[in-house]
Design brief:
Rossmann fold, two-stranded parallel sheet
Length: about 220
C-alpha cells in the first residue's frame, strides 16, 4: 500500500518499551501519529502526536481513535503471568477489529512474539524449556487468541513476531522469516522492531503473513 501523503497512524501500547520507539520513529518519518493511552501522565513526554486517553478495550474510545486513520499499529503487551489467565491482548484486539471495520480502516500491523503460533519451540533451549513454560505460557495463550482474531478479521494485516527483545542500539537491519525450520533462538533490538513494524504500514511485502524478525 502506497500513500499519496504521509500516513495517519494510531499506535496502541505506545508507552511500552517498543511502543515508545515506534512513536518516536513515526514522528521522525513525518507520519501523522495518534496514540491511545490509559494514562496521560505516562505519555507526557511525547512530542508531535495526538494524544487520546482511554481504555483499549472500549469500542467507543477505539472508534474515536481510529476514525480518519490510515493504519493501526498495535504494540500492546502484558507482563509475565505465571498463575493468572491473561485476556487483555485478545479482548483489546477483538474490540479494535470491530472499531476498524466500523470506521473503514483496513491496515493493521500487530506485534505478538516468538512463541506465538507455529513459532513455538524455536526460542532456544533456555527460553523453550524454562522461561516460556514457567512465566509466559498464559501470556502466549492470549497472544495465540490475538493472532487468530487478526487472521479472521478480513483486514489487511501483518503479524510481527520479534525474537527476544534487546535494548541495544538498532543495527538498521534484520532477518524476516516464515520458514523456521533452522531457527532456534535469537534476539533483536527494540529499535529494529519499531523500524520493521513501521515499514509494514506502507508495504504489502508481508501482508497476510506472520514473519519472525531477528538479527
Amino acid at each position: 500500500m502506497i500513500y499519496s501523503t504521509q500516513p495517519k497512524i494510531l499506535v496502541l501500547g505506545a508507552t511500552g518499551g517498543t511502543g515508545r520507539l515506534i512513536v518516536a520513529q513515526a514522528v521522525a518519518r513525518g507520519y501523522d501519529v495518534a496514540v491511545l493511552v490509559r494514562s496521560a501522565e505516562k505519555a507526557k513526554d511525547f512530542k508531535g502526536v495526538t494524544l487520546i486517553v482511554g481504555d483499549a478495550r472500549d469500542e467507543a474510545v477505539l472508534r474515536r481513535a481510529v476514525k480518519g486513520r490510515d493504519a493501526v499499529v498495535s504494540a500492546l503487551g502484558t507482563p509475565a503471568s505465571p498463575f493468572r489467565e491473561v485476556m487483555l491482548l485478545s479482548t483489546a484486539t477483538q474490540t479494535l477489529v470491530k472499531a476498524m471495520q466500523a470506521e473503514g480502516v483496513d491496515r493493521l500491523v500487530a506485534i505478538t512474539g516468538l512463541g506465538a503460533g507455529d513459532s513455538v519451540g524455536h526460542g532456544g533451549l533456555l527460553f523453550d524449556k524454562l522461561i516460556f513454560p514457567l512465566l509466559l505460557r498464559k501470556v502466549y495463550a492470549d497472544k495465540n487468541r490475538q493472532e487468530a482474531i487478526v487472521r479472521q478479521s478480513g483486514l489487511d494485516w501483518v503479524l510481527v513476531r520479534p525474537a527476544i527483545l534487546s535494548d541495544k542500539p538498532g543495527r538498521g537491519t534484520n532477518r524476516a522469516l516464515t520458514d523456521l525450520l533452522h531457527f532456534h533462538g535469537g534476539s533483536i533490538a527494540r529499535a529494529d522492531v519499531a523500524r520493521f513494524v513501521l515499514d509494514q504500514v506502507g508495504s504489502d511485502e508481508w501482508l497476510g503473513q506472520s514473519p519472525l524478525i531477528a538479527w
